[in-house]
């Protein structure tokens, strides 16, 4: 059971990371699927989808030490725990799965593969101002991926349908090292904003992660 790490963080957060090395058949017993989940799982045909879907359930249940947790989704597609106050956010990319847990507060975490494909869509999620200061960043591709991770983490945290990544999730300029802190403004429809802090880091040479730290 290759849990990469489970870390207790500041302000009550717990971060779990799983490095998938199993087959779906090996992961299945660790996921403790309900009858409903078993029916859904049997309809999945893609092996990578099966691995991610099973691994994050196994990770949540390992982190909470409760294999009988029931998982559902809110109207915006965010996973929730039935009859439990714990707040969770999950993400997966390549062989990695991450889960951020807090006893009460909304959470947000995102894992991404560093890939040139993200350059084709950068204008869709970065404002003109963000594109301008991002252009001066070193390790351009990795920095761009971290920006996406930050915005995706805030989007999950906010759980607001139709949130505009370019104009309502505004990342303040920062220089990205191997790990660090960044700040983001979550802008409401009335123009008011909340300042949110996040942490980011490399998981390996090809994957980065960002998470809510407030």
CATH superfamily placement of the largest domain: 4'-phosphopantetheinyl transferase domain
Q: Any idea of the CATH topology of the largest domain?
A: Ribosomal Protein L22, Chain A
CATH architecture classification of the largest domain: Alpha-Beta Complex
Q: Report the total helices.
A: 7
Overall, the morphology is: globular
Percent of residues in helices: 25-40%
Strand content: 25-35%
Brief descriptors of the model:
Ribosomal Protein L22, Chain A, alpha+beta, five-stranded antiparallel sheet, 2 domains, 214 residues, 31% strand, 7 helices, single chain, four-stranded antiparallel sheet
Provide structural commentary.
The chain is α+β, with helices and mostly antiparallel strands and 214 residues long. It has two domains: 3-107, Ribosomal Protein L22, Chain A, CATH 3.90.470; 111-212, no CATH class. It has helices at 24-31, 35-42, 47-64, 122-125, 128-134, 140-158, 165-168; strands at 3-8, 14-19, 71-73, 79-81, 87-93, 96-102, 109-113, 169-171, 179-187, 193-204, 207-212. Strands 7-11-10-9-8 form a five-stranded antiparallel β-sheet. α1 runs parallel beside α3. It is globular and about 50 Å long. It starts with a strand and ends with a strand. The model has no long low-confidence stretch (mean pLDDT 93).
Q: What is this structure's SSE topology?
A:
Elements: E1 3-8, E2 14-19, H1 24-31, H2 35-42, H3 47-64, E3 71-73, E4 79-81, E5 87-93, E6 96-102, E7 109-113, H4 122-125, H5 128-134, H6 140-158, H7 165-168, E8 169-171, E9 179-187, E10 193-204, E11 207-212
């Amino acid at each position: 059971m290759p849990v990469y790490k489970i870390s207790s963080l500041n302000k009550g957060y717990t971060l779990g990371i799983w490095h998938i090395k199993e087959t779906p058949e090996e992961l299945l017993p660790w996921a403790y699927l309900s009858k409903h989940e078993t029916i859904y799982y049997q309809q999945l045909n893609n092996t990578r989808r099966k691995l991610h879907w099973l691994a994050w359930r196994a990770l949540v249940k390992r982190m909470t030490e409760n294999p009988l947790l029931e998982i559902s989704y809110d109207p915006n597609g965010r996973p929730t725990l039935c009859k439990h106050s714990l707040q969770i956010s999950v993400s997966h990319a390549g062989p990695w799965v991450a889960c951020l847990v807090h006893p009460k507060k909304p959470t947000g975490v995102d894992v991404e593969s560093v890939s040139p494909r993200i350059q084709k869509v950068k204008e869709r999620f970065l404002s003109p101002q963000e594109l301008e200061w991002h252009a001066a960043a070193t390790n351009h591709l990795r920095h761009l991926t971290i920006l996406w991770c930050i915005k995706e983490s805030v989007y999950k945290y906010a759980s607001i349908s139709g949130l505009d990544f370019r104009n309502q999730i505004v990342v303040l300029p920062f220089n990205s090292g191997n790990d660090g802190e960044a700040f983001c403004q979550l802008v409401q429809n009335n123009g008011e904003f909340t300042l949110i802090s996040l942490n980011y880091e490399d998981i390996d040479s090809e994957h980065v992660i960002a998470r809510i730290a407030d």
